[in-house]
Amino acid sequence: MSRGPNAALPDLADPGALAFRTFLAVADRWGLQVKDRLALLGIARSTYTVWLKRLEGGDLRDVDGDKVDRMAYILGIYELAGTVFPDGVAWATRANRAPVFGGRRPLDRMLDGRMEDLIETLGYLKTASLGLL
Fold it and tell me: Tell me, what's the pLDDT at 11?
């Protein structure tokens, strides 16, 4: 997508805002309800509400690094699923027989809420991208 010369560029000095904006876009694509968004981020509803309000002002510089890492993994999963599979959204939201998912949707594995679940999901996609599955 081409950006015009006057288009606002993301504030790279605010990785929290950049990551959260991106997370919200991915969560929308996956059709996630707020409770699922909270599970993926590992945060309380009150924190989510505060982040949404602060995002309007464009300042999430103090978001914990672990939360930014979680959002980066989620973006990586979304991006790689779309590269490896014809429909990455469908891949994330359909049951998968791979041992790492145990017949559940990859999204269900991620919604277990542990960082390890995100790491394992991304690892599966990286392996798939190399043709090693």
Answer: 55
